[in-house]
Amino acid sequence: MFQFYKITIDEARFQEQLKNTGLSMKKIARRMMGRVAGTIKKEAKKNVTGLVLQRRSGDLSKSLSFKTKPDFTAIIRSGSIYASTHEMGETITAKNGNYLTFKINETWVKVQSVIIPKQEFLWPVIEFIFSTGKANALMDEVLQDALKKLFADRSAPEAKA
User: Fold this and answer.
1) In 39-86, at which residue ranges do the beta strands (DSSP E only) sit?
2) Which pairing describes strands 107-111 and 100-104: parallel, antiparallel, or unpaired?
3) Residue 133: CB partners within 8 Å, gap ≥ 6?
């Protein structure tokens, strides 16, 4: 059952590249993963609001969230109870009785089960962001910004007391 996707990058490679810069690796790691996860969330919301799924209440879109960690991971999840049904597909069967009963176009219908087809809204975005190199470009932007700030701070004249 879909609950969340975890994304990671090669921490050893990153540490090697940051050696001797004086930058906080943990802070930059969180920023990098935040930029990637935020982009994934933004693009997945587009899928939820009409490209893959039709928006009704907006609960699924509103429930998308992410959390970054300093170990180069980000958790992207949805708090919606039906997110996994859309992402993975599901067969719903009657619990109390032999039939599910519901109304379609003013007609009551009785069935033993309903198959909800897979309508991925999150995984295709994750796959696209990482397979096209966009994730690397986003992380590189964060690192470049940090390096620019570092070198700007080092080259600024020191204030004299």
Assistant:
1) 64-69, 73-78
2) antiparallel
3) none
Q: With a threshold of 0.85, does the pTM exceed it?
A: no
- Residue-wise pLDDT for 44-80, tens only, equals 888 776 656 666 677 888 888 999 988 888 999 888 8
Q: Which residues fall within 8 angstroms of residue 94, CB to CB, at 6 or more apart? A: 100, 112, 113
- The residues that bridge with 116 in the sheet, in sequence order, are 90
- Low-confidence stretches of the chain (pLDDT < 70) are 1-3, 14, 17-22, 49-56, 153-161
Q: Categorise residue 20: left if φ over 0, alpha if ψ from -120 to 50, beta otherwise.
A: left
User: What sign has the CA pseudo-torsion 76, 82, 86, 91?
Assistant: positive
Distance (Å, whole) CA 142 – CA 95: 50
Measuring CA to CA, how many Å separate 76 from each of 16, 19, 66, 69, 106? 27, 29, 4, 12, 39
Where do the domains of the chain lie? 4-155
Alpha-carbon separation of residue 94 from 63, 97, 153 (angstroms) = 27, 6, 65
Q: List the one residue out of 25, 27, 3 whose CA is nearest residue 16.
A: 25
